[in-house]
Every structure is written in C-alpha cells, then in structure tokens.
Amino acid sequence: MVDDAKYDIVDGLTLQELEPQLQALIRHDYPHSSPTDFICSEHLVQYRMQKMDQMIAKDYQQNKKINQQLSHILAKNTYQVVDVNRQLENSLTFGQRVADAVARFGGSWAFIISFVSIMLVWMLLNVLQLFGLHFDPYPFILLN
C-alpha cells in the first residue's frame, strides 16, 4: 500500500487490524486507502513512532499548562497552607478522643501481654485452687 512493493502477508497488517489512531495517521498521508489495504511492518513502525511523538508532545503541552497555572498561583501568593492534622485534632469531640485512646491502647503490645498475663493468672487460680478459691470451674468462661 505505502510503497506499492510486494510483501508477504506476515510482513505487515491490514489497516482494519490497526487501532483507530494509527489508521487516522495513515489515512492522512493516503486518503484513498481502504480498511483492507496492507501496510508493511517497516512503514508501520514509522507511523507508530509518529503516534508516540504526538502523545509525548500532547503530554508535554499538558504539563506546561499545569506548570503555568501553578506558577501563576504561587506568584499571586493567594494560597493558604493548612495543617490538616491540627485541624482534625481540633475538630474531634471528647468521645472521639477517648475512642482513639482506647483503640491505640487496645491494639498495643502492652495490652496484648497484660491480657494474656491476666488470663494465665485467672486459669492458674482456678486450676490450683489457691487460697481456697474455685470461682470459675473448667471449662473456664475466661472473663466473658
């Protein structure tokens, strides 16, 4: 199609097999091409490179636009830096602060170790009946 040379079918693709953006690039150079026209791999690489160049240029333009907007905002000095952690802490109610403290302790190693220790003492007191106490017979309810 592109150079009117003869190629094996494995050396390229038909236009209908290509993505629409590549088809548009090829049709721009060859407006009379049809979906069943063949393009060799060598020429297809050139069009794919052209497509990549367009994508990079588009990204560059978008980045340039964003940088200009940010520079404009920074130049005005109208932005405000906000410490969201401080704002959150100031907006918490007493109940929320207590819940956070309980959750912080309940998920700590200090809580886990103390809880296991209390459970072991509880079971030892019941099994050995120290001091004549036998208040939770086997199987232990274990503080539930």
Automatic annotation (TrEMBL):
It comes from Lactiplantibacillus fabifermentans DSM 21115. The lineage of its organism: Bacteria, Bacillati, Bacillota, Bacilli, Lactobacillales. It holds the Pfam family DUF1003. Keywords: Membrane, Transmembrane, Transmembrane helix. This is Uncharacterized protein. The chain crosses the membrane at residues 109-135. InterPro entries: DUF1003 (IPR010406).
